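Hey, can you fold this?
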Amino acid sequence: MGLFSNKISREDVRPGDHVYSWRTAYSYAHHGIYIGDDKVIHFTRGRGEETGTGTVLDILLLSSGPARRTDACEKCNNQQDTSGVSCCCLNCFLSGGSLYRFEYSVSPTLFLAKARGGTCTLAESDPPETVVHRATYLHENGFGCYNIFKNNCEDFAIYCKTGLLVIDRTPIGRSGQAASVLGAPFAAVFSSPLRFLTTNITGMTVVAVGMYCLSRYAADIGVRRDASKVSVEDLTVKLGVHNLQVIPSTGVVIQE
């Protein structure tokens, strides 16, 4: 674990760990919570949810869960077609990939030094037993509709680890990799007025990279002011009585 890689061995993983594995040539990572006994609870886009974006992001949507296996898994009964929150063995979760552990309570320096979003956060993690409780509770009660920007697998894992939810209608949820996807065009747009302060490509690149890093920092759940602690029991009750709206292609929105 460190600046360049969060890769760990299977012997190092512990119950309550937020784990992930890269998909589609390292373009996107799938996240989950390791609960022990070689099992991972994770949030997937179900194969019945076929609402696409009509863009290249559909490739990322399809890679949000483990790849379909042709052979049955004896440990988890190959529950890869289950939509929403599901539980599978570590092998099925990794789907042939390597195992990584998401880092919490990192310093601002380390956070900004990470070139890729979706690998660490400034937020503090709750105790492992609390994390496992949230994950198992949501496995039984659900986490709403999958949305790549506001309610994806990383959002699920971060909520299980921190209990934090974003309570406004901005287009970015808790996911660091979603913030990275949106941060690149953000940097390009908002750095353009600053092009007059530079006279060469190098200067413009530095400005764009700086804006990209700032956009990632501002979107991190550890510093956002629109994030609120919500107990998992309250979350599912609000989902049940519609105080919390779950709208396809919109994600989780807490009504104010």
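Oh, and this one too while you're at it.
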Amino acid sequence: MNIAIYFLSEASEATTKGGLFDFNATLPLMALQFLALTILLNLLYYKPVSLVLDDREEYIRNSLTSASASLLKADELTKTYEFELAESRKNAQKIIKNAQEEAQLIVSEKIKEAQKEAEKLLLDAYQELNIQKEQALKSLEVQVDLLSEQIQKKLLNN
């Protein structure tokens, strides 16, 4: 029992000396100080920092959105340009093919004309040679006739 009385007397002394749970004006003052610091930190630090972070997040979101839109537009333009390039190549190939065919037709026509002209020249030359041949034969006949008359006269005279 002495021990219990001793502990009770010690406990009563601790309460009077400002023990572990002393409920005087310090506790509400500490609570008010904590609330004031919390409000002050909220106003001076947390709100500006959160505003900066929100602005940054919005800027990043807008940047990503505009970058995505630009990328989509670039992809569409690339597809369009590739399609137009393919069409242009096809058209160029058609133009080249048509030009080659036209050139081939012109060349074959020129060759045919040249062949006809060559045949005409050959025919004209052949006809000219025939005429010259006939003239040569006629002149030879005349000369043969003259020579045969001369031979005949000489033989008859002798």
